[in-house]
Every structure is written in C-alpha cells, then in structure tokens.
Write a structure and sequence with these properties.
The structure holds 2 protein chains of 2 kinds.
Chain A: E1 11-13, H1 18-44, H2 53-71, H3 76-89, H4 95-102, H5 105-123, H6 125-137, H7 141-155, H8 161-178, H9 187-204, H10 213-225, H11 231-256, H12 265-278, H13 283-306, H14 308-321, H15 327-331, H16 336-354, H17 357-364, H18 366-369, H19 373-390, H20 393-411, H21 415-423, H22 437-444, H23 450-475
Chain B: H1 7-17, E1 20-21, H2 23-26, E2 44-49, E3 53-58, H3 61-64, E4 69-74, E5 77-83, E6 89-97, H4 114-117, E7 118-121, E8 124-127, H5 134-137, H6 161-173, E9 179-183, H7 194-207, E10 212-216, H8 223-230, E11 235-238, H9 245-251, H10 253-259, H11 261-274, E12 280-286, H12 291-303, E13 307-312, H13 327-343, E14 357-358, H14 364-367, H15 372-380, H16 384-401, E15 402-404, H17 405-411
Parallel strand pairs in B: 1-4, 8-9, 9-10, 10-11, 11-12, 12-13
Antiparallel strand pairs in B: 2-3, 2-6, 4-5, 5-6, 7-8, 13-14
Classes of the chains: A mainly alpha, B alpha/beta.
The structure holds iron/sulfur cluster.
C-alpha cells in the first residue's frame, strides 16, 4: 500500500492558550459589527449643528473606516474599497467624482516609484550600493554600525523604506552570523538590527520616495485645497528632522547598546567576498542607475511643470523601452493593494472636506484642546506619532489628514503646512514591531527583545516629536511654511 | 502484608498473577470476551472490576498456576474469589464479565474473519492494519513482544480501509466498543507510521462520530505530530515502555537503536503541547527496571504533561521463567503515578477503560485519594450526553488550534 504524501497545505498548530485563540477568532465579527454599529449610529443621530446631511454621511463612512483601519480587521485596501462603494451610494459625492479622486496623481506617482524601486532591486543595483557602502566604510565595529545606519537611511531617500529593510535584512543577519553574535545579550547585534530598522525609517521621511505617506498626504492636500509640493520642497521641509534624528538615533543606539565586540574582521571578509562575487556592474545595472538618476533630476527640476507622477511613469516607460525589466519581474515587487488603499483614502479625505465633515470634526476635537496654531500642530503631530507606533503609516495619514485640513481652515493655518505635519510624524515608529514592516523584520531576527525596542524607541520618539516641533516653529517659516503663533 | 481490596490493587494482582477459571465458567452459555481476540484458546479475559476498573486477566493454565484468584459463575452473577495459601477466602467480589463480541464470528465482504481485523480491549476497538512490526522485520523485536515479534505477515497484506470500516461499523452497531484505537508497529519512515495510518484515521473520522487514539512510534519530523492531530487523532501514544536507558537497550533493542530514548521524550513533549491535556500517554512497564527508575520516568513524563500509564510485565515464554512482582514495591510507584499527574494538573479523565494498563485515576486508590471531581467528570463522559459533549469539545478545540500556513498569514496580516 502506498504511503500517502503529507498534505500540501502546511499545517500549523496554534499552541497558545485556548482563551487567546478564542478571543482572536471572535474579535473579527465583533470588530466588524462594531464598525457597522458606529456607522449606523453616526448616520442616524440627530443632525449636529454645522454639519450638512452629506457631511453626516461622510462622517459615518469615516467612522466606519476609522474602526476598520485602526484595528486592521479588514485589509487596509479593502476598507478603502468599502469607502469607495459607500461614498456615492450614500450620496456624499457622485460616483464619477469618487472614481476621479481614486485615480489621483499621487496614486500613479506611488505606482511609478514602486516600479522604479523594483527595477533597482531586481537588477541588484540596490544591493551593490549597500554592499559598496559597507565595504568602503565598515572596517571597525563602530564604523560598520554607523555605515549600516546611514546606508539604510540613504537608500530610503530613493526607495520605499520597507523595501530597503527587506533588502538589507539578509546582509545584517549575515553580519551577525559571521561575527557569531549570540542571540541573547549581544549589544552589537541589537545595535545592528536597530540601526537597520531606524535608519530606514528616518531616511524614509526625507523625500517623497521613502514611502507612500508623503504622496498620499500631498494627494489629499491637492484634492481638498488645490495646493501641492514639489519634490525639492518636500525634502527642504523634512531634512532638519532627518538630520536631527540621524544624530540622536545614533546616540541612542550606542548609548543603550555600547559596542561590545573588538573586531569585525569576519564580517569584513564576507562583505568583501559578496562584492567580489557581484563582479563589475552590468550594463543593465548601469542603465537602470542612469534612468533613476535622470528621473530624480527631472523630479527636482521639472516636477512642478510636468507633474511628479508623469515623470515617474516616464521613467517606467523608458525602463520597459530599454527592456531593463519584464512585467512578471515587477509583479512580485509592487504592492498593488496599497495603491487601492491610497486611492480610497484620498477619495474619502476629499469627500470629508468637500462635505464640511472634516471642519466639523476639527471643531469638536482638536480645536477644543488647542488654542493657537502651534498648539494645533503639537497635538496633531503627537497624535500622529503615537498612532503610528501601532498602526500602518498610511492609515494614520488617511485618518488625520482630513481632520488636519479642517483644523487648518478654522485656525487660518496654511493647509500646506498640514501635509508634512501629518505625514512626517506618521513615518516615525520606533517602539513596536507592529509599527512598521522595518521594525517587524528587525524583530523577527530573534536578536531583539521587545524591551530593546520599547525603551530606546520611546526616547527616540520623544526626540522625534521635539525635533518636529522645533523644525515647524523655527525653520518652516524661513522656507515659507508659516504656521503662525 | 494484608492484601488491599481496592479495585486498582485487584487489577494489579490479577494482571500479574492471572486467575483460574472455575468449571462453572466453562459451561456458561455466553463465552466471555478474550483480550486477545477470538483465539480458539483464550489466553486472557477482559473483566470489569468494581468502580468500572477494566482488567485483562491471564487465564492460561501455565501462566496462572498458583494464582490466588478463581472466577466462578453463581447463577446470574460472576464472582471473583481470592484465597490465601491456606485456602481461606480473603475476598469475594462480584465482577462483570464482558461477553464475546458477536462480530468476532462474522466475516468481512472480502471473506476475512472480523476478529483478524480488530479486537476489543476495554472500551476500545484495537486495530492494527499494518500487521508486522518493523522492529521484528529487522530482527530486533522487543523482548516482551506478543504482537509484532511473532508476526510473519508482510505489510503488503495490510487490511484495506473499507474492510476496517466494515468491522468498525459491526463493532459499533452491537455496542462492543466506544473508541477506535489504531496501533502500528515500527515503520522506518519520516512519519513514524502516521502516513500509513492516515487514510484509516481519515476514513473513520468521516464515517463515525467517535474519538480516535493511535499508538505509533515517534516520527523523525515533528511536523508529523502536528499533522497527526490535524488529521483527527484525539489521543496519541509513543510508547517508551521503560525510562532507564540501559533497560531500554536490553529489552527494546529496536526502540533504542532506531529511534532512541531522547527522541521518544522529545516527540512526547511536542505532542503534549499539541494535543489536549491528558491525551498523550506512554506506557511504562513495571518489573523490567527498578521501581526507582519507573518513578523517575513518571516524574519526568508528568513534567512534560505526558500521562504515564503503568502496565505490568507479563513474562512471555521467550523471556524465561516468571518472576513474581512484589506488590509492596509496586504500590508506591502507582501512588506516585497518581500524585505526579495530579500535581501537574494533567486531565486524568481521558485515559479510561484500559484493560492492559493502570491509569493515573485508577492509581488514586494507592495514594488514598478519592479524586472525587476527576472521577465525577470521567463518569459524566460515560453517559451519552457527556460523551457527545466530550467529542464536540475535542472537535471544537481542533478547529481552533489547527491552521494552515496561509490562514495563519492571513490572521496575522502578514
Ligand atoms: S514495538 Fe516492540 S512490542 Fe511493539 S510490536 Fe514492535 S516489537 Fe512488538
């Protein structure tokens, strides 16, 4: 009799206490119905003063999405699709308007950036850059750690921070392995993985390419106020925070985890070997590098004239014209779901503002707690930075941006200020593995305990908020982003 | 020492010394159930002692010479009598004799006598579809083996699934058994024999609402333990038989050589994480290693949440002359069995109606504890409603615990 093969679907046994599994299994229907109840309650409550019927419906949809986005009971993008379905059916805005908003320029900019990053990763150029930096600077424990930290930050200027973390994680893991760092109690190992995770996040807020948050915030800004940012303007607004956090982050890492090894010779040898194995850059790598460089220059000099999304898509077209990437290659790297999420969030944000719902929310929330524009900024950024520790960055932007725009209108703040005020803090999650894929990847190495992230991460979060406030108060007015006092 | 009269002590004594059948038994109209299937000459009989304690008592003349026990039929009653060496009666207790299942006399549609496919032990329908044990096939059977060692059947002759289903249906229809208990000897395979048993388990699962136990040898890969639970096995045993490493090497050459004591312990520990409390067990044979070593084994196994079941070593002819077990030595072992399992809060209710081994709950008598709650809960599961609840709970637990990788990624939003 033939022995049957084990079933293809790999079995996992959940050995956690049963009450926990039960709680986890029942939380979904509970949360789904909570969202529904909240939605119905907001829709059917007596119409508040200052809120139109369309505004009330928009608010109900927003409340529903709030529950689902915060709890992730549905995938983020599915919640966005739900918003898209509900907006026209409840009469907040027409179907035509909804889908026009969904096809926002920001969505296509993110798509272009994803594809360009996919090309960089696929051809191996991104790994080459990482390895070259480490080879060039990382000869002592200190310089290796610092170059890993800065390299992650630097690469996140040009591609999604999550992609950078995913790419540099195997390299970091190999460094820890060849240095025979013990899984428990090695300061250097913890420092390496924190440098990787934090480096990518700090670098990720510097440009529009580090993640979808900034394009999403700009997309929402454009749809509600018609204003926007160029590639250079955004970086100009963000760089002081990046610079401060790079310095503070480094100090936090080496102070909490003083370097406890003397030599990185073995790691050095492995890195040298990797570089050797890569050989000389191929024509494909060089070509993709050139296209990327040209796209960057075009974003900086012609972004306003031609549109960021146009330039990104032009770069993509050139890559395919030159056959530097095939479509199946790129499919593994592009997170299509997140594009849906952004499209829906932008539509919902615009509907909130157009229907007056965001202004109303602002008047009953932040406006009551804050008296001056600076206080408003302090509250908004604090909420953003706290929420993002446990929530998807993009979801934080999707939730806060409509409210922030409403507040800006009430306090007479330039709405442009609100895009970085929401998107920059929303990108800084340093304390929990769930905050961002970068943290989760670092934590999955097994070298970090939760404690190792929590305490130093909290210090960095506090520093980040202070750095943000200092930048907004003293630096932004110098570049024309007046907050007002 | 004055012999104790509690049923667990009787079980121990009966299992070890056997009993003599009074002529009144032989003329009894309904034949009693043999523990060894429907052999022409029964070697042992299944009896139910007071408080529902099952025992398989040897009845072969050679094995029971000098036994103080005699079984007789007095009208409608079946009575067990014990006499001391002077012939003075020290105990007379009514027991329940279990009639021979009717299906033993039937044949499957393929013509195989049903008793060849399955035998009833306690309330379990024991099925060994594989026939020969891998250790015997390699010439390293356990020294005390009565099943696998003499087997000559090849594995190609394994019972077809449909035939097994037919026999299970026959046994259940006449109420001869409550549970299905699959047993397989050693398989030199990564899955430890579970791959072979899987179609049987799945078929029984599909056709009957029952609990399934399996007794196999540890797989090489722990994933097979997880799969065993996922496929629908409710209770699992990897029988270590003895805790002392040297004794294992001496008596169970195959176990020691092809699997190794450490792997048994490792696999049992993983199984105890996966299966419900009290459903992973291993036999420990008293009498083949020093009592101290058995006690160490009991402690170590209980610490891993594994239930030790103590069985009494019965000398087959091959091993040599019978050596009598000293009840005074075994009693503390059994007291320890109960206490260790209780201290570790392992559920004692699942292990029941085993005629060949002493369960922790039965061993409570040796510790002088009533274990009222555990006894009451176990009693509940003997009622139709209680049994239904136990089966439903087992199924519900499995549904909660078993996931496929894909599901788990979804759930963790990966
Ligand atoms: S494992 Fe040992 S006792 Fe069991 S069947 Fe095989 S040889 Fe016999």
């Amino acid at each position: 009799m033939a022995v049957p093969q084990p079933s293809r679907a790999e079995i996992l046994i959940d050995t956690r206490p049963l009450w926990r599994i039960l709680a986890e299994r029942t939380y979904r229907p509970i949360l789904l119905s909570t969202g529904l109840v909240v939605y119905l309650m907001v829709r059917t409550m007596p119409q508040p003063e200052g809120l139109s019927p369309a505004g009330q419906n928009a608010l109900a949809i927003f409340a529903l999405c709030l529950v689902y986005w915060v709890t992730s009971v549905l995938p983020l993008m599915v919640t966005s699709l739900l918003a898209i379905v509900l907006l026209p059916t409840t009469g907040v805005i027409s179907a035509k308007e909804t889908y026009a908003l969904f096809g926002n320029e920001a969505v296509f900019f993110i798509l272009g950036a994803f594809i360009l990053a996919a090309a960089l990763i696929k051809c191996g150029l991104s790994s080459r850059i990482a390895i070259t930096i480490l080879r060039r600077f990382g000869h002592t424990p200190r310089t290796l750690l610092l170059s890993l930290f800065l390299m992650n930050a630097f690469m996140s200027f040009f591609m999604s921070e999550h992609a950078v973390a995913a790419m540099t994680f195997p390299i970091t893991l190999e460094i820890a392995r060849v240095l025979r760092l013990p899984r428990e109690g090695s300061n250097y190992a913890r420092a390496l993985f924190l440098a990787m995770a934090w480096g990518t996040q700090i670098g990720g807020i510097a440009t529009l390419l580090g993640g979808g948050r900034a394009p999403l915030a700009i997309g929402m800004l454009r749809e509600t106020s018609g204003q926007s940012y160029s590639f250079a303007e955004w970086t100009l607004a963000a760089w002081p925070i990046v610079a401060i956090l790079l310095v503070v982050g480094w100090q936090v890492i080496v102070r909490f985890f003083p370097i406890d090894i003397d030599s990185v010779r073995d790691a050095d040898a492995v890195i040298a070997q990797k570089l050797l194995r890569m050989g000389r850059p191929s024509v494909r790598e060089k070509s993709i590098g050139l296209v990327m460089l040209a796209t960057l220059v075009a974003w900086i000099v012609g972004g306003e004239e031609f549109g960021l999304a146009n330039i990104a898509l032009a770069g993509v077209v050139v890559i395919f014209l030159l056959r530097l990437l095939t479509w199946p290659d790129l499919e593994q790297y592009v997170n299509w779901g997140i594009l849906l999420m952004y499209g829906g969030a932008i539509a919902l944000g615009a509907a909130m503002t157009r229907s007056g719902a965001s202004g109303w929310v602002a008047s009953v929330t932040v406006s009551r707690w804050a008296q001056t524009p600076l206080q408003v900024l302090a509250v908004i950024s604090a909420i953003g930075i706290l929420l993002t520790e446990a929530m998807s960055h993009s979801a934080v932007v999707a939730l806060l941006m409509p409210v922030a725009i409403g507040i800006a209108q009430q306090f007479g703040i330039d709405p442009r200020v609100m895009a970085p005020a929401v998107a920059l803090p929303a990108g800084l999650a340093f304390t929990l593995p769930v905050g961002t894929p970068g943290n989760a990847i670092a934590y999955s190495s097994g070298y970090l305990r939760l404690r190792d992230m929590l305490v130093p991460g909290f210090v960095l979060v506090a520093a980040a908020w202070l750095a943000f406030m200092a930048t907004a108060t003293w630096y932004w007015p110098l570049i024309g982003l007046g907050v007002g006092r | 020492m004055r012999p104790a009269t509690h049923p667990a002590y009787l079980k121990l004594e009966l299992a070890e010394r056997g009993l003599v059948l009074d002529p009144s038994v032989r003329i009894h109209s309904a034949p009693f159930r043999s523990s060894t299937g429907a052999d022409a000459v029964a070697r042992s009989l299944d009896l139910v002692l007071p408080q529902g304690v099952w025992v398989s008592a040897p009845v072969e003349e050679r094995a029971t010479a000098g036994s103080p026990f005699r079984l007789l039929v007095d009208g409608d009653r079946v009575v067990l009598v014990r006499r001391d060496p002077d012939g003075v009666e020290t105990l007379r207790v009514e027991v329940r004799a279990v009639p021979q299942p009717r299906f033993y006399e039937r044949h499957t549609t393929r013509g195989t006598p049903m008793w060849r496919v399955a035998a009833v032990h306690g309330s379990h329908l024991l099925i060994n579809p594989a026939g020969a044990c891998g250790f015997s096939l390699r010439g390293t059977p356990c020294r005390f083996c009565v099943e696998g060692a003499p087997a000559t059947a090849e594995r190609d002759a394994a019972a077809p699934v449909e035939e097994v289903l037919e026999v299970v249906r026959a046994a259940f229809d006449e109420g001869a058994a409550e549970f299905v208990y699959f047993n397989s000897g050693f398989f030199d395979a990564e899955d430890g024999g579970m791959g072979f048993l899987a179609p049987y388990v799945e078929a029984v699962r599909r056709h009957f609402d029952t609990l399934i136990a399996t007794q196999v040898h540890p797989p090489r890969d722990n994933r097979w333990i997880d799969r065993t639970y996922a496929m629908g096995v409710d209770a699992l045993s990897y029988n270590l038989e003895m805790f002392d490493e040297d004794a294992l090497k001496r008596h169970c050459v195959g176990r020691a050589r092809y699997i190794g004591r450490e792997r048994y312990l490792e696999a049992l520990a993983r199984a105890a994480e996966v299966f419900p409390s009290g459903t992973v067990w291993t036999d420990l044979v008293v009498g083949l290693e020093p009592p101290q070593s058995t006690m160490r084994g009991i402690d170590a196994l209980a610490a891993m949440a594994v239930v030790p079941v103590v069985s009494v070593f019965r000398t087959p002819e091959a091993v040599g002359p019978r050596a009598s077990l000293d009840g005074a030595e075994v009693a503390p072992v059994l007291a320890r069995l109960y206490r260790a399992v209780k201290e570790r809060r392992i559920n004692m209710g699942w292990m029941r109606d085993l005629s060949l081994g002493i369960t922790p709950l039965e061993a409570r008598h040796f510790a002088g504890d009533g274990a009222r709650l555990a006894v009451a809960v176990q009693r509940l599961t003997r009622f139709r409603l209680g049994a239904l609840a136990a089966r439903s709970l087992a199924r519900f637990r499995r549904r909660l615990r078993v996931r496929t990788v894909g599901e788990s990624f979804d759930a963790s939003h990966v």
